[in-house]
Specification:
single chain, about 375 residues, alpha/beta, Rossmann fold, Glutathione S-transferase Yfyf (Class Pi), Chain A, domain 2, six-stranded mixed β-sheet, 8 helices, 17 strands, globular, binds adenosine-5'-triphosphate
């Protein structure tokens, strides 16, 4: 049995094009309707910042406060969350060095880490910026996959950051021609254990998702995806972790001169790619039509949402920006039914209220106009 998490109140201060805006929510799905540039995606971005990371735009903190605002931005949310009712406040303050720093308060107490947010709610999203996922750079697909992993395993982000830091140290030593074996071995040891842990977490997520997609295949209105990882220790995917660690470690120590010449580390989890195929068509996702790719992506995000719900016992908050625009009426109705069946609260945006008719009273309509909200 999946329980619901829901945002019941949201207040934005100096956030993007919002000066002061507040909203009480009924717990139903929320449809934000407004003209281009009204502030719909900004609203979604604010909710995405109730999860660890940089939100759905991957924004730099200094871009987020309203232009002309005297200080930072603030987001306040009252949430009926995974650990009961909670009040979350997040935003930026200016540090002593003049740079903005993110602050997070949970029930009035300063949180030690933004990871604490995942004790209360999980937020997943799909935005038009992700439309080119299957044809674009592998870094985007890696990031997408890592976000999927993060939603179930908050430690994944820390591992990835620590790996990056260790790799940067190795690159620096190599670029300076400092081939100190003791120093390099220590760093490479760290890279090997973190890198293999990252790869294992990604593989586990792919396995879980594959199982869920398979069980949904008959009933889903969306195409099914098969997922695979390539680009890192491909020939040894089934080897136990300790063997992989040894293998990667020896790879790193043998490639020092090559990597020094290249100016970067050429092998590692930072080079992995997520390969997605359209199962029914047996075709690589990148070669499918635009509409097919969008439907695949929607199917994937919904499957992931169901996985999060199953694993945590709580349906995640879903942010679906401009999701209805490219779907025909039947697909749209099927999508709304799938979203509703997840049992959580979904936020959707559109320029035309009519597109959401099939949701009926399952959704609350919020009108967005030039940084103002009205229900
Ligand atoms: N830091 C900021 N301060 C003030 N305004 C900003 C800031 N960042 C973005 N904006 C403005 O916010 C406005 C609304 O952007 P948003 O992306 O939310 O629009 P939208 O309603 O989703 O539009 P569309 O339907 O075109 O996607 C834009 O005009 C943008 O220029």
């Amino acid at each position: 049995m999946t329980e619901k998490t829901q945002i019941t109140r949201l207040k934005l201060t100096d956030f993007r094009n919002y000066d002061q805006a507040g909203l009480s929510l009924s717990g139903r799905h929320v449809v934000l309707v407004g003209e281009n540039g009204a502030g719909k995606t900004n609203f979604m971005e604010a909710i995405s910042l109730l999860s660890p990371g940089r939100g759905l735009r991957r924004a730099v903190l200094s871009d987020v406060p309203r232009i002309g605002a005297p200080g930072g931005f603030a987001i306040f949310a009252a949430v009926d969350g995974m650990a009961g009712d909670v009040e979350i406040g997040t935003g930026t303050e200016t540090a002593d060095d003049g740079n903005p720093v993110r602050r997070l308060r949970i029930n009035g107490t300063t949180a030690r880490s933004v990871d604490e947010l995942t004790d209360h709610l999980r937020v997943l999203w799909l935005t038009p910026a992700m439309d080119g996922l299957f044809t674009g750079a592998s870094a985007d697909r890696r990031r997408f996959l890592d976000r999927l992993v993060l939603s179930l395993d908050p430690a994944h982000g820390r591992r990835a950051n620590d790996f990056e830091r260790a790799m940067r140290s190795r690159n620096k030593l190599l670029s300076e021609g400092r081939f100190d074996p003791t120093w390099l071995s220590g760093i490479e040891q760290q890279m090997a254990s973190l890198g293999i842990a990252m790869a294992a977490a990604r593989r586990e997520m792919i396995g879980l998702l594959a199982g869920l997609i398979e069980s949904d295949r008959q009933t889903s209105a969306f195409p099914s995806a098969s997922l695979a990882l390539t680009g890192f220790l491909d020939d040894h995917a089934d080897a136990p972790a300790f063997e992989l660690e040894e293998l990667y470690l020896s790879q790193l120590s043998q490639t020092r001169y090559r990597d020094a010449a290249a100016g970067r580390t050429l092998d590692g989890p930072h080079r992995a790619d997520l390969v997605v195929r359209h199962l029914e068509k047996d075709m690589e996702a990148g070669r499918c039509s635009t509409g097919e790719q969008k439907a695949l992506l929607i199917g994937l995000v919904l499957a992931h949402a169901r996985l999060v719900a199953t694993m945590t016992g709580f349906a995640p908050i879903l942010l679906l920006d401009e999701i209805a625009a490219h779907l025909d009426e039947n697909r749209r109705a099927a999508l709304f039914d799938r979203i509703d069946a997840l049992g959580g609260q979904a936020f959707m945006t559109g320029t035309d209220r009519g597109m959401f008719e099939a949701l009926g009273d399952r959704a609350q309509i919020v009108l967005v106009e030039d940084g103002h909200l009205a229900t």
